[in-house]
Amino acid sequence: MISDQKEHILQALKKGIRYDGRKLLDYRDVKVETGFVHGAEGSAKVTIGDTEIIAGVKIAIEKPYPDTPDKGNLMVNAELRPMSNPEFESGPPGEKAIELARVVDRGIRESKAIDQEKLCIEKGEKVWSVMIDIVPLNASGNLLDAGALASLAALKNTVFPKLTEDGAINYDEKTKDKLPLQKEPIEITVLKIGDYFIVDPLPEEEELLDARLTAAITADNKICAVQKGGSEPLSIEEIDTMVGIAQDKAKELRKLIR
Amino acid sequence: MKRNDGRKNDQLRPITAKVGVIKNADGSAMFKLGGTTAYSAVYGPRDLYPRFKQDPEKGLLRCDYNMMPFSGHGERVRPGGGRRSKEISMVTQNALLPVINLKGYPNAVVDVFIELTETDAGTRCAGITAASMALADAGIEMKDLVISLSVGMLDGQLLADINGKEDCELGATDIPIAYIPSMDKISLLQIDGEISREELKKALELGKKKCLEIYEIQKKALKQKYAAKVKK
Predict the structure, then answer these.
(1) Which of B69, B73, B120 sits opposite A133 (nearest CB)?
(2) Which terminus of chain B faces fewer neighbouring Cβ atoms within 10 Å, N or C?
(3) Do the strands A223-229 and B27-33 form a parallel or antiparallel pair, or are they unpaired?
(4) Residues from chain B contacting residue A90 (CB–CB below 8 Å)
């Protein structure tokens, strides 16, 4: 069954057509809405084709980690709830959710998107924690790129809550102070199926991939994090091609966030 | 006396209701009441596993209520649920069961997922209202829709659809109910706070009246989706 479908998809790719009629390197329509939920300090909903995903940013005051006493904390979590796809199950995050969260985390962390030193309130004692939660409403492929884009848009939308006189957070009131952002990483996943490279996969295409490469790209076109997925190995030339595709597509997506 | 958000005592917050919002699901709905937004997706009837849970006489209705981590009005909500969401899932199931005919789905399960993206009180009610629309959208055999709403009691006044401030800060008595119009019956009733027997009766009457307003909005949202389909 799978091999029949793969044959069908490969035949189409040979002619330069995708399962849904797109060209190999075409993205589906992408939409970014910010301020999607009022309870979060920042939020965004990203729609890519039928995939809809929310990222929400919550801010808290916590103790810093012992190895970074003068830096704010960053945490990224993803919940693949059964509402968004019949194959997702309730319960603790599985492999897919953990990979999604970690790949988005690395793009933000390694690009130094947030100036974490500016999140220090009192060295070793009190720092701001930035917690990003990624939750799809409808999961129909390419959650990595969609989740990363939603997270970046949500971070850009985030404002600090007000503090009370004794230094606690008053979540009911927001300031106008934005997060100290210094880089804006965009993540693009390139799939290899047979001899072909595609972007923005449908779930059917994700099932059949031989290899995939997710690269986080900054505005100055630097690569700041990469994740290779899939069981097939890649040649150096293939990696170079895939990174090039990611750079081109990152430029396109970057236009959507302001 | 005006309420803290300027509403009249029997006035609902602004409502948005939409059907067919989650493409992967067999049926789905979004119901927004003021600052509370519930999404519901229905999957099924589908095979029930583990097998020993299967019932050859009738299908199983399974409800799962969850608040997204960023949906609270204060601190981040830790994912994974807990006692509160377990209990709400259970009372949601009981609120919906009377209208659903599961006889036609032997050995199967109808899964109802409720996710809150943002909250300002009345989350279980918004969830039930959304879920009954999602079940109808999924084509599950139903006798009626179910509407749920919270009625409050504050300083001797009955208030329809209490918000978070009235519930948590001002300390209103919170009375979430679910109402089934065709049976004229209540399928969810909880009370948190003090109230007299006479006042309770009045609260239920008010709740019923306001549920009927939401009922019209539910039906309109369902018709809208299918009217659009007919046009195509």
Answers:
(1) B69
(2) C
(3) unpaired
(4) 64
- pLDDT, greater one: A92 or A54: A54
DSSP states of A165-207 as a string? Answer: TTS-EEEEEEEEEEP-B----EEEEEEEETTEEEES--HHHHH
The closest of B97, B171, B98, B90 to B124, measured between CA atoms, is B90
Q: Model confidence at A257, in pLDDT bands (50, 70, 90)?
A: confident
DSSP state of A125: T
Contact at CB, A37 and B70, closer than 8 angstroms: yes
Mutate to test the interface with A, among B24, B28, B169 (most CBs of A within 10 A): B24
Q: Which residue of B has its CA nearest to A132?
A: B70
Measured between alpha carbons, how far is A43 from A157 in angstroms, rounded to an integer? 6
Beta-carbon separation of A84 and B72 below 8 A:
no
User: In the numeric block, which tokens belong to residue A192?
Assistant: 């290899």
DSSP B211: H
Query: Where do the structural domains in chain B lie, given as residue ranges?
Result: 15-231
- How far is it, in rounded angstroms, from Cα A41 to Cα A43? 7
Does the structural domain B15-231 have CATH classification 3.30.230.70? yes
**Minimal CA–CA distance to B130: which of B143, B147, B142?**
B147
Which amino acid, residue B7?
A: R
Confidence of residue B227 (pLDDT cuts 50, 70, 90): confident
Residues B81-104 have pLDDT tens digits of 889 999 999 999 999 999 999 999
Check CB contact of A138 with chain B, cutoff 8 Å: yes
- Alpha carbons B150 and B124: distance in angstroms, whole number: 9
Model pTM? 0.94
Domains and CATH numbers, chain A: 2-254 (3.30.230.70)
Angstrom distance (rounded) from CA B130 to CA B66: 13
Using CB atoms, pick whichever of A36, A57, A140 lies closest to residue B24. Answer: A140
Quick check: ipTM above 0.90?
Answer: yes
- Nearest CA to B59 out of B112, B104, B97, B113 is that of B104
Are A37 and B21 within 8 A, CB to CB? no
Q: What is the pLDDT of residues A71-84, one digit of tens each?
A: 999 999 999 999 99
pLDDT of residue A2: 62
- Interface membership of B74 toward A (CB under 8 Å): yes
